[in-house]
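pinned: reference chain
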Amino acid sequence: MKQMKLEEALEALHKWVLELRSIGRFVSLAEELTAATLAEAYLNLNGGLSADDLKLIALSTLAKNEETRKALLLLIEGPRALKDRGLEGGPALPYNGLKAEPLAQSTLPYDAISRASPQRLRYIFSIMRRSGALQPSLAARMLERRPALALKLSTSEGLSATALMRTDKASEVISKIISKANSYEDAVRIAKSVDPRLLWRVEAKGAFKGSSLEALSRASAAVRYASLYFEYGDSHYEIMAAEEAKRSEELLGRADDPELAKRAADLLAESKAIISASRGSFTDLVKLPLQTLVPIVQDLYMNSRSKRLRRELQRLLSRSLSRGPGQRGRRFTYAEGSHGKLDVRKSTMMYVRLSNDFLVFRVHEKLKKKTLIVDVSGSMRHYSSMALASAAMASRTIDRLILFNDRINALKGPLSEGALIRLLVSLRFEGFTNLSGALLQARGSRRVVVVSDLRQTVAGPRPSETACRLIKGGTRVTVISPPTVNVAELTDLSACGARINVIEEDSVMPTKISRIIRKA
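pinned: its structure tokens
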């Protein structure tokens, strides 16, 4: 009997499922994937798969009752029916009612994606995308296995997935998204919407050659090679970083986009600072603004094998935080008028500056302990990093720290500034988002500060429902979110009494977050 290829078997299964759905015999996504898994396993174990074998597999997995079994037999044994209904070689019919099916994590285990063959992975990707069930978290896992699948996604779908991916794979996916852009202007818009450090794989060809986008791509490559030089100490990486930086500087002389040119110049400064740090000099790193310094220190710390360099990076970050505006968990506030205790040192400074009202008084401030909940999923790396850096400035007010992605890690406080810095530089931002679970861990706390985009990506209750229950129980909830926050969740939280703060990533972000944490 003629043996079928895996692609033929999967296509036949898919057509049978579509036909069953079109006549009202609902087949779930999980059942279809089970049939595909059995077909692949049978073919691998026996070295072949016949039409009769596929028929038995389909009947055992898709026929939930006698009516469905009869309908499936008619489809299998009467292939002309498929042709008559326009399914043979034609476009796939919509998945009737599939969007209404709840897709919990258990429906499609993530480890099943990691074990799937390339053919089956393409099959799962195709049917989930056509069904509307391809969530960014699932797309990220599939793209990490096979980045070429990005060519089948829309630009917005691909970029949403890259926010949840590891850096090396995300850069490959972004390069593919940019390569299929309809015009140079579209490519520039995409480049502006992502972390410029991920553009090092973008190839300079066609309209990109000699442009600001090429300058940015080469500056990104210079940072990449400088980081590899820091990690391995191989002088070849230093040479490659210098070559990319030189070419980028040449292109910046005729830049056609000021914003891309500025980003490229910033990356070149980072590359120079990393090379200097590799040689033992941290002078250039200290000059960088905090929002630029934190991700660099994180990457260098994770890539360094030297305990001495790691200690230096921790001290560097501590010194940078100490340049802040004195919000590091201070125990007093300055008061107007003659209330409180006279601050002789500050009054003297004001007198020297010829201030009319030079007397400064300070009032003891009672520290209010609180629980800080920080989202450390892949999509929140930069924002949550700055939030943790800000928390180091107000470390005395944090009684408990809860870090969460799809897992939850609760740390008992109080945490010192040094402990928070060590945590910040060594933390891996990855995984998905289980905010509801993290909020449940905060039960019993009087004050809770949440740093998250409120995008729950695992099965469970809505974060707003869990937070509202805490508020009704007497907990004071403060939310700090980026502009990309889930607006629906934010609105519901505001309605039930949570304090909402949407803060942009800018130079004063650490100060703002530190102040909110202290006053929550």
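why pinned: Strands lie at 332-335, 341-342, 361-364, 370-375, 398-404, 408-412, 447-451, 476-481, 499-502. The domain at 370-519 is CATH 3.40.50.410 (Rossmann fold).
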